[in-house]
């Protein structure tokens, strides 16, 4: 027996797979990763667990042609396993039928989701190419991560929604130049395990340490203390969830009345400060947004707010916002207001200072401004112009034909007859899963490519088993990471599973466009081709080794991204005439004429405090007195590898842990390690109690991603045995501007669960017939 060591790349890092006689034995950290994520080694047991989808399967009622509109068949029916030939025929015939009878826009290919690392086997890329070549599909716009930010920032600072990533200070510059970092939502290192598309080695933790060692002070404004690492010695200001805008307004008001604000920058480089200042002063509504006002709303003391206003203006400061603050009711406001606050503070456009978003939400944010071009599966333009804002999927299914607002336009929700999901898990990521489950019954057909029988697979009509990233050849290049990493197949696909590409090629063949889809390349020829394309574009031999050398050595370094990165705030500060931003005014828009002209009642012409529908001071808190923070899990990426070793070992009696303050636990008779029921009017789930002072009183934290495990799948509001917080969250848009998801605005209560514990069936396949 000879052990082979092979390269593995994932969204949570790069590893070495140890393979013996074709068997994957273990996954080890790479010697050169200073902070490897423990998620990787836990992938091994999931590769062949009982949840793997081994053969194509079709829901029984669908196969029998039973009528299904508005019933509860999806998610409850048994499945029948079929041959690949039959599965390919069923899917291609159904695609043909739906396109002919209802038009191409009736095919929903939005298929949001992270899928796996890999430039060729990129699940959405493959799906979109396949559907676009076949006539097109209704797409989705923006992300569950940052929809509110993506829509508001181009109005405020101009440019591409993601361009802020290359315009904000990098960690090295912060260490060198900054004195004070105020982080709204903190800088949770649990999140920097991840980088979209992969990474060679984790850097954020050491870069944060360097900042601290250089003397930078950190303030963590967050409901959870552990959102900053202990070594940062951060000052913790617990904030009532969803009130960051009020805290920022209180700080801004204090700056204004004391004359501490940077008048020169506001006059030269921004527009609309006067109108905003009149709002701050309360000239129209009679309410000055002063520190006392902010203290009442946020729970942060008046003194702390005043003190921050002083320090932000006298020290070289940086205001950071994370993404969770905008995944909330009126999530546009804290993003917009944080830019305005930085502009007032006097640090905007100074090295290592000013404003930035998303630090530590992913490893490469703030590590490098960008990386150069790397080839990927080529896009084909989609002939169908229709789209939905990504989080409006249940609305579209329930209310086709309804018109909604979106960033100044009116959109008509299309009638979707066939859902094709590949590389995402809506029954993890969407809010109010009971509502989604109802909506999900309406289309004619749901096709899903999955490797495991997760809830989305169980709610499909046709499930096609896919090879995982360990079971195919590819290479990875992550966001802002200056490396590409080889991903040779380390094991054979489980059962009869095939790659997404192989499945689409077979469907394209039946539908008459295989050659257009595959360009007559085999999979490994595609991988070589994309590598060669990258190599040529970056300068050939001088830039990258030959493909064979790269494949042998596993990792190649890319040249640094050189920019230019237009829209820099330093340029703006130096000369706003010469270096205008890509906003209508060319300046930072504290007041946006454009947004004002939309006349929305939930997003005005300047940042404002809007009371969230669900928060700790809402009337509803009489019945549900705890604010639910459903943040990202430390033990996995979203729902991926919830069945892996790392995530399974984090569970309490098989349930997802929920963390609460001892002061909230005591009156409810809850002790650490007990199973509790978390509930509100939308649903309820079981979870394992963890008590900690790190979570402020009034707040409970339950991470996303436990596979939804409904006791009675067809029944509205049925108990979830496993702990998926999206049975509790509200499917309510942030506002009419972004229509983004507001997962972090939900009230709940928690009680002991003393009844006999039901078994968790989340990882069991549905009933399968042959
Ligand atoms: N309550 C609440 N909900 C949230 C959030 C929150 O903060 N709170 N966060 C939101 C955010 S930020 C995000 S980004 C979303 C994430 O939502 P998703 O991206 O949908 O979540 P994942 O679990 O990553 O789902 C990826 C799915 O793709 C499958 N997969 C992996 N590789 C492949 C492949 O090669 N081919 C195919 N066909 N499938 C593959 C995996 O098995 C998995 O089921 O969740 C959102 N939901
Ligand atoms: N390990 C791991 N890392 C991940 C992911 C994962 O699934 N697992 N997902 C990745 C993805 S797709 C994304 S988009 C990013 C998301 O990055 P974020 O959205 O920033 O991450 P979260 O963990 O949801 O939230 C971080 C913290 O924000 C705080 N917070 C919540 N609500 C509020 C509020 O109203 N005000 C303030 N001040 N703070 C609040 C919470 O205490 C929470 O712990 O993370 C990425 N990193
Ligand atoms: Mo995300």
From TrEMBL:
Enzyme Commission number(s) from the entry: 1.-.-.-
Domain Molybdopterin oxidoreductase, first and last residues per copy: 52-509
Bias-annotated ranges (Polar residues): 639-650
Necessary cofactors: Mo-bis(molybdopterin guanine dinucleotide)
Disordered as annotated region, ranges: 639-666
Superkingdom per UniProt: Bacteria
Positions of transmembrane segments: none
InterPro entries: Asp_de-COase-like_dom_sf, CT_DMSOR/BSOR/TMAOR, Molybdopterin_N, MoPterin_dinucl-bd_dom, Mopterin_OxRdtase, Prok_Mopterin_Oxidored
Domain Molybdopterin dinucleotide-binding: 626-743
Gene Ontology MF term list: oxidoreductase activity
Keyword terms: Metal-binding, Molybdenum, Oxidoreductase
Domain Molybdopterin oxidoreductase N-terminal residue range list: 9-44
Enzyme class: oxidoreductase
Family from the record: Belongs to the prokaryotic molybdopterin-containing oxidoreductase family.
Protein name, entry field: Biotin/methionine sulfoxide reductase
């Amino acid at each position: 027996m000879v052990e082979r060591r092979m390269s593995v790349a994932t969204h949570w890092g790069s590893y070495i797979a140890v393979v013996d006689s074709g068997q994957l034995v273990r996954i080890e950290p790479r010697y050169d990763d200073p902070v490897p994520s423990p998620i990787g080694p836990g992938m091994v047991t999931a590769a062949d667990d009982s949840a793997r989808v081994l053969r194509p399967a079709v829901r029984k009622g669908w196969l029998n042609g039973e009528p299904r509109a508005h019933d509860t068949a999806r998610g409850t029916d048994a499945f029948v396993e079929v041959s690949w030939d039959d599965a390919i025929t069923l899917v291609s015939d159904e695609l043909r039928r739906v396109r002919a009878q209802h038009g191409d826009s009736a095919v929903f290919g939005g298929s949001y989701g992270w899928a796996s690392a890999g430039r060729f086997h990129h699940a959405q890329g493959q799906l979109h190419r396949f559907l676009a070549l076949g006539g097109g599909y209704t797409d989705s716009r923006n992300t569950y991560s940052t929809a509110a930010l993506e829509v508001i920032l181009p109005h405020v600072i101009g440019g591409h929604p993601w361009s802020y990533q290359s315009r904000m200070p990098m960690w090295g510059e912060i260490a060198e130049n900054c004195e004070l970092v105020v982080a709204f939502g903190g800088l949770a290192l649990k999140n920097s395990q991840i980088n979209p598309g992969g990474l060679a080695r984790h850097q954020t933790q050491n870069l944060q340490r360097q900042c601290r060692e250089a003397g930078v002070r950190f303030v963590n404004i967050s409901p959870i203390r552990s959102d900053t690492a202990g070594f940062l010695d951060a000052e913790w200001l617990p904030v009532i969830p969803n009130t960051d805008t009020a805290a920022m307004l209180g700080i801004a008001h204090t700056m204004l009345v004391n004359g501490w604000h940077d008048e020169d920058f506001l006059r030269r480089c921004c527009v609309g400060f006067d109108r905003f200042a009149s709002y701050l002063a309360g000239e129209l509504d009679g309410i000055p947004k002063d520190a006392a006002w902010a203290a009442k709303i946020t729970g942060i003391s008046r003194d702390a707010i005043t003190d921050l206003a002083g320090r932000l203006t006298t020290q070289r400061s940086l205001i950071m916002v994370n993404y969770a603050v905008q995944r909330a009711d009126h999530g546009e406001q804290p993003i917009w207001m944080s830019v305005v606050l930085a502009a007032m503070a006097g640090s905007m456009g100074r090295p290592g200072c000013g404003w930035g978003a998303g630090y530590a939400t992913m490893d490469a944010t703030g590590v490098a401004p960008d990386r150069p071009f790397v080839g990927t599966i080529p896009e084909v333009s989609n002939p169908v112009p229709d789209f939905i804002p990504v989080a409006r999927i249940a609305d579209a299914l329930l209310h086709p034909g309804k018109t909604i607002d979106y960033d100044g336009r009116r959109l008509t929700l299309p009638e979707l007859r066939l859902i094709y999901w590949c590389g995402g898990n809506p029954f993890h990521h969407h809010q109010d899963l009971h509502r989604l489950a109802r909506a999900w019954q309406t289309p004619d057909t749901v096709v899903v490519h999955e490797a495991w029988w997760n809830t989305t697979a169980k709610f499909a009509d046709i499930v096609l088993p896919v090879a995982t990233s360990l079971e195919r050849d590819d290479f990875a290049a992550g966001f802002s990471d200056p490396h590409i990493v080889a991903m040779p197949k380390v094991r054979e696909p489980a059962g009869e599973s095939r790659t997404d590409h192989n499945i689409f090629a077979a469907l394209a063949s039946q539908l008459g466009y295989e050659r257009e889809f595959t360009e007559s390349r085999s999979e490994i020829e595609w991988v070589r081709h994309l590598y060669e394309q990258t190599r040529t574009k970056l300068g050939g031999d001088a830039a990258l080794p030959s493909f064979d050398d790269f494949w042998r050595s596993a990792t190649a370094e890319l040249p640094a991204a050189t920019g230019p990165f237009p829209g820099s705030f330093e340029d703006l500060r130096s000369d706003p005439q010469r270096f205008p931003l890509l906003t209508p005014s060319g300046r930072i828009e504290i007041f946006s004429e454009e947004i004002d002209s939309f006349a929305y009642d939930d997003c005005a012409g300047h940042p404002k405090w809007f009371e969230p529908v669900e928060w700790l001071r809402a009337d509803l808190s009489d019945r549900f007195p705890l604010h639910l923070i459903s943040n990202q899990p430390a033990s996995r990426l979203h729902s991926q590898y919830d069945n892996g070793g790392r995530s399974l070992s984090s569970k309490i009696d098989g349930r997802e842990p929920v963390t609460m303050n001892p002061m909230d636990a005591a009156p409810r008779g809850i002790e650490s390690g007990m199973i509790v029921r978390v509930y509100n009017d939308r649903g309820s789930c079981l979870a394992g109690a963890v008590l900690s002072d790190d979570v402020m009183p009034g707040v409970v934290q339950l991470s996303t991603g436990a596979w939804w495990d409904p006791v009675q799948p067809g029944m509205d509001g049925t108990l979830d045995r496993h702990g998926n917080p999206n049975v509790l969250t509200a499917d309510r848009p942030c506002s009419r501007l972004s229509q983004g998801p507001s997962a972090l605005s939900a009230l709940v209560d928690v009680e002991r669960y003393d009844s006999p514990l039901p078994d968790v069936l989340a990882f069991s396949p549905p009933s399968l017939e042959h």
